[in-house]
Amino acid sequence: xxxxxxxxxxxxxxxxxxxxxxxxxxxxxxxxxxxxxxxxxxxxxxxxxxxxxxxxxxxxxxxxxxxxxxxxxxxxxxxxxxxxxxxxxxxxxxxxxxxxxxxxxxxxxxxxxxxxxxxxxxxxxxxxxxxxxxxxxxxxxxxxxxxxxxxxxxxxxxxxxxxxxxxxxxxxxxxxxxxxxxxxxxxxxxxxxxxxxxxxxxxxxxxxxxxxxxxxxxxxxxxxxxxxxxxxxxxxxxxxxxxxxxxxxxxxxxxxxxxxxxxxxxxxxxxxxxxxxxxxxxxxxxxxxxxxxxxxxxxxxxxxxxxxxxxxxxxxxxxxxxxxxxxxxxxxxxxxxxxxxxxxxxxxxxxxxxxxxxxxxxxxxxxxxxxxxxxxxxxxxxxxxxxxxxxxxxxxxxxxxxxxxxxxxxxxxxxxxxxxxxxxxxxxxxxxxxxxxxxxxxxxxxxxxxxxxx
Length: 454
Fold this sequence. Notes:
The protein has helices at residues 19-30, 45-53, 65-68, 85-92, 100-106, 122-135, 150-156, 168-171, 199-207, 226-232, 283-298, 303-312, 340-348, 371-377, 389-395, 408-418, 440-452, and strands at residues 11-15, 34-39, 57-60, 73-76, 97-98, 112-117, 140-144, 161-165, 181-184, 218-222, 240-245, 253-257, 260-264, 269-273, 321-326, 329-333, 354-358, 378-384, 401-405, 424-427. By secondary structure, the protein is α/β, with parallel strands linked by helices. It has 3 domains: 11-98, Rossmann fold (3-Layer(aba) Sandwich), CATH 3.40.50; 102-312, Mur-like, catalytic domain (UDP-N-acetylmuramoyl-L-alanine:D-glutamate ligase, 3-Layer(aba) Sandwich), CATH 3.40.1190.10; 321-452, Mur ligase, C-terminal domain (Protein-Tyrosine Phosphatase, Chain A). The strands form 3 sheets. Strands 7-8-6-9-10-11-12-13-14 form a 9-stranded mixed β-sheet, with helices on one face. Helix 6 packs across helix 12 (303-312). It starts with 10 loop residues before the first strand and ends with a helix. One of its GO terms (cellular component) is cytoplasm. Its main location: cytoplasm. One of its GO terms (biological process) is cell division.
């Protein structure tokens, strides 16, 4: 429905001109809004071109407050926090603030949405669900936090099904957004600086994924996750619950027993041997696969197609990505592992003695979380960061070798020196990358380059 059938166009102001901002601008324009895009930083050339080609008004390097505060609605980039001064002024004027996924939802028509959130495993699970859907020949798109704007997809190439990776930041500004299938993988402490260092705020944010669901929708969640299960005791859910577990059998949902994954969401039951999962090794990926399998089953995808897709899935770049084996030493790129829970999962899946490259911008890490796995599996830690003090404090005396480096070249060289044949060098930083790199992708790319230069 076009919100703006009257002669007066409503002004939609978009804060942030990245992938989601430009996508939202295109969708809003096509639905009759006057659009103004404002970015306090520099806008990338490709996005400037898109805005200019579509004759969308924009500014960079500033926010023209008067114009922004005259908007009838504001769409803000998920990267802008509530404590931002301009956001406070917008709130004070009672101008509605929405997220890009809310705008996309508004204009998606009759299309269905599978939305995936959680602290860890979102990208892998989202990509796996998408891979299953495309293997089964469904008309679908991969959108959201994984890299392609949901709003832009709706504007330019609408599909019958959207598989969307959704972050807590995107969920913070929804109003009516309602996925047909919601997946909540896990909740561990992360991004607490955005949630007043209160884990409850973060949990509430994640659970917004189901707040608009009805009896016709489905909620897939991890029965083994303490924070999820505690929160579920205090709320009422309207949708159909489909839990997954490694610790107990469930009547509906998925579980693993005797190395067999059982999925029972619809009439058809599916069983798969976990040793057939070529690119999905480790317990964390077994959880991800259960969640994806349930979602696929709810979508009425045949079990043969689900099995085929799980077996042909290739791991994502920068997420437990095999790089090379050099003189018997295996190199794994897990640069996307930016919190300690990710490091825990990465180490848990290691089967050989490991040299761990970790470090960067610490987000308040509690290193005791990985202490047992460090003692059990790690021969040496190569610190990669400008300030490695906390890593030294956490593991000195518990592991023989900890070395400091401040460039990827030095980190890879040191790790290779420390490694012997049949060892694994694992880059799983457990920290943000911004002290030495542009982002986790840049860090992972540099790792791969340096490994190939050995």
